[in-house]
């Protein structure tokens, strides 16, 4: 059974930093991309960033480009989302996803709150 476990959320002030981690528990055959979406209160879930299996290809939403950095450690089955220069509009529940190609696994989410 595959589980996606997020950690690292919290509350910070504007301009602060947080690092989110997402670890895959269980085994997935083959390669898989990983990434993050976020959902603010009353809003739809939106794409934040993704990273390929090799780590060579990353994509970011325009709203987080140059502030967030996504990396992965396949030996640990973990991705890290480094979030710098945080803004109040980054406040949301952040969801990790794992995409092996035949479907997507989602985590339960971790809250990020940025106050002004």
Number of strands: 11
SSE order in H/E notation?
EEEEEEEEEEE
Question: What structural category arises from helix and sheet content?
Answer: mainly beta
Number of helices: 0
Measured on Cα atoms, how large is the radius of gyration?
A: 13 Å
| Uncertain stretches | none
Strand content: over 45%
The pLDDT mean sits at 96
Largest sheet: 7 strands, mixed
| Percentage of residues in helical conformation | under 10%
Question: If you had to describe this structure to a student in words, what would you say it looks like?
Answer:
By secondary structure, the protein is mainly beta. Helix content is 0%, strand content 53%. It has no helices and 11 strands. The chain has strands at 3-7, 10-13, 18-25, 33-39, 46-51, 58-60, 68-73, 78-83, 92-99, 105-106, 110-115. Strands 2, 4, 5, 6, 9, 10 and 11 form a 7-stranded mixed β-sheet that branches. The protein has a 4-stranded antiparallel β-sheet with strand order 1-3-8-7, with no helix packed on it. A hairpin with a 6-residue loop joins strand 4 and strand 5. The chain is globular.
Task: Give me a quick take on this structure.
The chain is an all-beta fold.
What keywords describe this structure?
116 residues; mainly beta; seven-stranded mixed sheet; four-stranded antiparallel sheet; 11 strands
Strand and helix layout:
Layout lengths: L2 E5 L2 E4 L4 E8 L7 E7 L6 E6 L6 E3 L7 E6 L4 E6 L8 E8 L5 E2 L3 E6 L1
Parallel strand pairs: 2-11
Antiparallel strand pairs: 1-3, 3-8, 4-5, 4-9, 5-6, 7-8, 9-10, 9-11
């Amino acid at each position: 059974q595959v589980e996606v476990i997020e950690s690292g959320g919290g509350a910070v002030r504007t301009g602060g930093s947080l690092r989110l981690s997402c670890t895959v528990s269980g085994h997935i055959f083959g390669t898989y991309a990983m990434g993050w979406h976020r959902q603010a209160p009353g809003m739809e879930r939106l794409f934040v960033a993704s990273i390929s299996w090799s780590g060579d290809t990353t994509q970011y939403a325009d709203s987080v480009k140059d502030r967030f950095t996504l990396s992965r450690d396949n030996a640990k089955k973990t991705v890290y989302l480094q979030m710098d220069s945080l803004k109040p509009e980054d406040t949301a529940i952040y969801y990790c996803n794992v995409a092996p190609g035949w479907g997507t696994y989602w985590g339960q989410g971790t809250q990020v709150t940025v106050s002004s």
